[in-house]
Write a structure and sequence with these properties.
- The protein has 182 residues and is mainly alpha-helical.
- It has two helices and no strands.
- It is 34% helix and 0% strand.
- Helix 1 packs across helix 2.
């Protein structure tokens, strides 16, 4: 497969040094325009990529810019489409991945809150306190990707127990866990 090419003068991808039109060279270690790599005073622990700004040398193959260009080149070759169309596909994939990871962390937070609420409800029932706070039910709008997740019932929270629900024998009824996936 084709690998991304990078100018050793401006450090940008997409062209070689011989065809680089940059007027000043950029250091491949620290991104400075005042010196080259061979005279760079910056320790490699403090490197800064000229392409993404992260803490690594521009030649690092794990760079997000390098990986996205590499992925686009591979898509272009494998699917027989233009590089431009392949770049659009890669951008779309990264956007979807970012959205998925953001929504996943949000879903995890919501699920954690529901579980903690259910634990408090169970604790309140076990300790014999009369009334407990309600636990928010899982709403269909809380889930972002219904195709990959099992749908949970809106009744996925424990039934609330109060003084009025005590049986004649004086014992508190246990919470209903019908459809509960906690």
């Amino acid at each position: 497969m084709a690998k991304p090419i990078r100018s050793n003068k401006c450090q940008a991808f997409g062209h070689k040094t011989a065809s680089c039109e940059a007027t000043t060279a950029v250091c491949s270690r620290c991104s400075s325009k005042k010196h080259g790599y061979t005279s760079c005073p910056v320790d490699k622990k403090h490197a800064q990529c000229a392409n993404c700004g992260e803490n690594h040398n521009v030649a690092y193959m794990g760079c997000i810019k390098y990986r996205s260009i590499d992925r686009a080149l591979n898509i272009s070759v494998k699917q027989g489409i233009s590089y431009r169309d392949a770049v659009m596909q890669v951008k779309k994939m990264y956007t979807e991945e970012k959205t998925r990871s953001t929504s996943t962390s949000s879903d995890i937070t919501q699920q954690t809150e529901r579980v903690q609420g259910a634990k408090k409800a169970t604790s309140a029932v076990d300790s014999g306190t009369g009334t407990i706070m309600s636990v928010p039910a899982c709403k269909k709008t809380d889930r972002t990707d219904d195709k990959t997740r099992k749908e949970t019932s809106a009744k996925a929270t424990p039934t609330l127990v109060s003084e009025a629900n005590k049986s004649a024998s004086g014992h508190t009824t246990s919470p209903s866990t019908t459809g509960d996936q906690l």
